[in-house]
Design goal:
Elements: E1 2-4, H1 15-23, H2 35-48, E2 53-56, E3 61-70, E4 73-81, E5 89-93, E6 96-105, E7 110-112, H3 118-129, E8 133-140, E9 145-150, H4 151-159, E10 167-169, H5 170-176, E11 178-180, H6 190-201
Parallel strand pairs: 1-4, 6-8
Antiparallel strand pairs: 2-5, 3-4, 5-6, 7-10, 8-9, 9-11
Helix pairs in contact: 3-4
Length: about 200
């Protein structure tokens, strides 16, 4: 199945690339799940314990071609995103609006900017302008390390990439981000990083 954005571009992981990513999915912290699945389970934990209400954003899709190999089944062959995606998750925590993106890389030394789209950067800037808590969770799958990076830091470095390097180094994240140590309940305790971030800002 081919999925495209309204401007005709294909997303980072679509069609054959999407299948390739799924086939090579790396276990998350030896628990046999993807980073996204671990975040979703963490969000369920926060919701069930009345700590926060955070959900993955649905992306509206326009289906344009469907095959029916048999009467009881349908296979989507081509579809388009009705509008560019923004970030992965949003919600509310202690009266504050949260909005964040979750990305992963197999790189061991840096996190490439090419993992992000310009419209996602614009969305982060809009959220920051409204004083929302906006951040990125960065997962280094080869290292089993996760970092919380405030969007204001990321956006600033994004706009400098034409004159500087095309990625954020691991050492930069170690210095400017907050490392999240994986747990069981929740599996990705990112709200602890949010608390630390808010404390640093006050």
């Amino acid at each position: 199945m081919t999925i495209r954005y309204p401007n005709g571009q294909t997303p980072l992981h679509s069609g054959a690339n999407q299948r390739k990513v799924q086939e090579k999915k790396v276990d998350f912290a030896n628990r046999g799940m993807s980073f996204e699945e671990a975040i979703n389970i963490s969000n369920d934990y926060y919701l069930n314990h009345q700590i926060a209400v955070i959900h993955k954003k649905p992306t509206p899709v326009q289906i344009v071609k469907v095959d029916y190999p048999r009467r009881s089944a349908a296979v989507i062959r081509e579809a388009y995103f009705r509008q560019p995606s923004t970030t992965d998750y949003n919600g509310v925590y202690r009266g504050r609006y949260l909005d964040f993106e979750a990305k992963e890389t197999k790189n061991k030394t840096s996190f490439p900017f090419k993992n992000f789209h310009p419209h996602q950067i614009k969305h982060m800037e809009d959220c920051l302008a409204q004083e929302g808590i906006c951040f990125i969770l960065m997962w280094f799958s080869a290292l089993n390390r996760c970092f919380f990076l405030p969007s204001e830091i990321f956006v600033s470095k994004w706009h400098q990439q034409s004159t500087e390097r095309k990625s954020l180094t691991l050492s930069f994240l170690e210095k400017n981000g907050i490392e999240i140590h994986l747990g069981v309940a929740p599996r990705v305790p990112f709200l602890a990083a949010v608390d630390q971030y808010l404390q640093q800002r006050s």
